[in-house]
Each structure stands twice: as structure tokens, then as C-alpha cells.
Amino acid sequence: MANGHDHDHGEVVVEFSAKRPAKLKTLDADALILVDGVEDGSFAVASSKKELKQLMKSDADVVYDEKKGKLYLNANGEEKGWGKKKVGGLIARFKGKPELSAEQFEGMEAFDAVKATMIMSTAMITSTVLTPKSRLLLITKH
After folding, report:
1. 23: which strand partners?
2. Spacing of C-alpha 101 from chain mean position
């Protein structure tokens, strides 16, 4: 459910929860958005179905599907899916498909997909076991 109320400074605050996904016809461009259960997190925008699927398996906390105007809470990190029902998943649908950015969300920063990919790649490399018969080939471009 989206709760909209005036904040101490006169700005509109909208709060979303996976327990009751909200449907909004409009969203004030200056509204401050709170996501129930996320204190400090990362926000990502998916421009395609492929990006949405990739972000679903990332550690981005909140993901916006800009093609469909749907906002998701990624409650299970890099696991498949969005998490348990009423904990993660769809938290809002926007009829007008507004542009959203991390700056509009309380405590959120923009998700850095490159940084996340590098961390995942490093983890995969460090978990690889090399045996005497293994070969490791590094190709560099000059």
C-alpha cells in the first residue's frame, strides 16, 4: 500500500510495502519515496526484459521496470526471483510510467552494475580451484 503524507518540511512522502502493492495514477516528481524494509540500499532501473532478469539476480535492493512502470523489492539478493511473497516482489505500479531515480528514494544510492559484476567475477575466480593439469589463459588487448 502506498501511504502518502506530508513530511515535516512540506514535501510529500510515499511509502511502499511488499505486503500490499500500490497502484498509482500519478506520482509527484518531488515526492520522497520510502520502501518498507530498506534502510540503506541500492536502486536500479531496467530498460528491457533482459536487464530486469539480470537485476532480479543482482544485489540491487529496489528495481524499477521502466517499460512497464513496475517497482520491485529484491528481498533475496542474488538468489533467483524477488524473494518470498509479501516480503519481496512487486511493490508498486505506476500508470504513467514516470522516470524514477535513486535520488527520489530515502536512503538509496544508484546501483552500480559494473562494480557488482566485478565483485561477482572476483568471487568466481577466487573460488576456482586449479589443479596441476588445469590451464589458465589470460588474454589482454593492447
Report:
1. 93
2. 11
Question: φ, ψ for residue 55 (rounded to 5)?
Answer: -70, -25
pLDDT band at residue 79 using 50, 70 and 90 as cut-offs: confident
Q: What count of other Cβ atoms lies within 10 Å of the Cβ of residue 27?
A: 21
Q: By the 8 A CB rule, do 27 and 4 touch?
A: no
Nearest to 47 by CA among 27, 64, 22: 64
Q: How many residues does the chain have?
A: 142
The predicted-structure confidence for 80-104, as pLDDT tens digits, reads as follows 889 888 889 999 999 989 999 999 9
> What pTM was estimated for this model as a whole?
0.73
Rounded distance, CA 46 to CA 64, Å? 6
CA torsion sign, 41 to 42 to 45 to 50?
Answer: negative
